[in-house]
Predict the structure.
Amino acid sequence: MKASNKAVDAVRAADAAWLKAFNTKNLEKSVSFLDEQGSMLVPNALIVTGKKAAAKLIADGFALQDYKLAWHPDKAGVARSGELGYTSGAYEVSFKDASGKTISDKGKYLMVWKKQADGAWKVLFDMNNSDLPPASAF
């Protein structure tokens, strides 16, 4: 039996609401979208698990000058059991470094969502990686 369109719509809505929280740079609201055991897997950094660690990672991003982040899901689904869902798509991020130079990245992401006891969807895993070639080490 396939998961209902209503469940998939709920996961898409949670994804959009999380982006809205990020765009307003609301740290408390942004962190609230994570499952208690949620993990963020971002490039060039160790895995971050739990709301306290995620709050620091998110706050560090918000503190960057002209920080902008957007993501756009092009796929979403919910497991037959109805307990897990996913969204995936493209992201873009930019900010200014200490010298004022704009740093930009774009790539793809995958979020695994877990349905909570109260029916809310929370992020269990948030992973992204760049489409751009690595910067030269030389």
